[in-house]
Amino acid sequence: MTAHHDPTTRTAALRTVQQAKEQRRVIAGTVIGTSIEWYDFFLYASAAGLVFGKLFFGPLGPQASVIVSFMSVGLSFLFRPLGAFVAGHLGDKWGRKRVLMVTLVGMGASTTLIGVLPTYASIGAAAPILLILLRLVQGVSAGGEWGGAALMAVEHAPVDRRGIYGSAPQIGVPLGLLMASGMLTLMTTIAPGDAFMQWGWRVPFLLSVVLIAVGYWIRHGVEESPVFNQIAELKDERKAPIGVLFRKHGVLVIFAALIFAGNNAAGYMTTGGFIQSYATDPEGPLAFERGPVLLAVTGSAVTWLIFTLIAGWVSDRMGRRNSYILGWILLFVGVVALFPLVKSGSIGMLFLGLVVLTVGLGFTYGQQSATYTELFPASVRFSGVSISYAIGAIVGGAFAPTIAQALLNATGSTQSIGIYLSIMVILGMVATLLLRDRTGIPLGHGSEEEQSRSPLVFVKSNAQ
Predict the structure, then answer these.
(1) Name one Pfam family in it (predicted).
(2) Cα(449)–Cα(447) distance, rounded to whole angstroms?
(3) Are 347 and 296 within 8 A, CB to CB?
(4) Which of 142, 155, 77 is nearest to 397 (CA)?
(5) Considering the domain boundaries, does residue 152 fall inside one?
(6) HEC-encoded secondary structure of 252-307
(7) Residues 244-269: pLDDT tens digits?
């Protein structure tokens, strides 16, 4: 019998085709699902800089209302660890897929409800209270989303393509920013001036209900992670994965969190709405129209997406650690150049400043899913990546717009903001240098002993 007719060969070929098809389905489900989640999350942040200060916190006065509005953005980050703890625990016990379905619905429902929420002028203090409560639901949902999406992408990936596969949930962030800024830009055209403040801002929030239905349908067709299936077959789900994580890998969680914090602080200059608020402030030095600023942010989201994909691809070739080191150097240049370019008084230069920033943002973000997945053992991996991500988001991004606004108010200059962002980048670089490269480490449950060896350079590699 020739190889062409060998049933074993045909079965293997069919299995390869089916595996490739499932991998493409996972990537599509991951990209679309995380894009929708971050669309919802960033829509609030952009609206905080443009709308919520006046409509929900207006009685506090012009400066205080903006700061409190940005604080409501950051407040949700304090609840992301709760989402990460719950999702990590359930994800390591019950699977990645179930958790992702719940977080998607939670995020979409809260976003849609914000779109119908009465303002302070209508119901008084109840309006900002309800707004903040819905933002907290977004925070819990976001805390559980990323870890599951990262593991689904990387644990399904071929060993030599984990970086590029893992960039799928990462590009959900710039895609979410692209969609959020794009929808707000469109609404400033359809409903300019007072109409935007009256009803135009609500339309992008209401659109979320349609996006969630699409995302739920796509994710429903994705198979569970093969690594979790292996754990489940061996009946070895951890009864208390979070306890094991902090007992054996607590220091690693802190260093992994610092890596993300360095990226997140710089990223939240746009995703947190600070640049939008600074550039459109009628009392500020620039006083640009909303439309052109939102268009510039939308354009920079495209370049962020591109460099995120490139970083994932590069990390498969030069290793996660080396690609991060390159990224920190590029991001340092970006944060130093940002405000001098933004303050030049030209929309074109503002856009250039954002583009330069996104080069480093992409190169310190595209490889994160693969990096985090390779850091933690399979049995506590969902908990490890989710909690590290959530803590990093608090340290880096949670109050970055609030800190930036407070520094601007205190000093009257953006130079202090540049120094703050530079310090955060340096922290990320130091944390990276203190971790060994784990590119290509086996991810299956059968390699748990190798995975449990500490990647920290100051800890012996044969012990945790």
Answers:
(1) Sugar_tr
(2) 6
(3) yes
(4) 77
(5) yes
(6) HHHHHHHHHHHHHHHHCCCCCCHHHHHHHCCCCCCCCCHHHHHHHHHHHHHHHHHH
(7) 888 999 999 999 999 999 999 999 88
Q: Which residue, chain included where needed, has tokens 């407040």? A: 75
In contact, 283 and 277? CB cutoff 8 Å = no
CB-facing half-sphere around the CA of 210: CA atoms within 13 A: 5
Question: Could you tell me if residue 4 is inside a domain?
Answer: no
Structural domain boundaries enclosing 109: 25-222+239-451
Write out pLDDT tens, residues 374-405: 999 988 888 899 889 889 988 998 788 889 98
Helix intervals (H) in 49-201: 53-55, 62-75, 80-94, 96-114, 120-123, 126-155, 162-190, 194-195
Q: Write 337-344 long-range contacts (CB < 8 A, 24+).
A: 338/269, 338/418, 338/421, 339/414, 339/415, 339/417, 339/418, 342/275, 342/278, 342/279, 342/286, 342/414, 343/285, 343/286, 343/414
Domain count of the fold of the chain: 1
Which residue positions in the chain have pLDDT lower than 70?
1-20, 22, 93-96, 221-240, 461-464
Tell me the residue length of the chain. Answer: 464
Closest of 173, 159, 155, 154 to residue 31, by C-alpha: 173
Would you give the distance in Å from CA 290 to the centre of its chain? 24
One-letter identity of residue 406: A
Token digits of residue 309: 């994909």
Cα–Cα distance between 140 and 120 in angstroms, integer?
25
- CATH classification of the domain holding 60: 1.20.1250.20
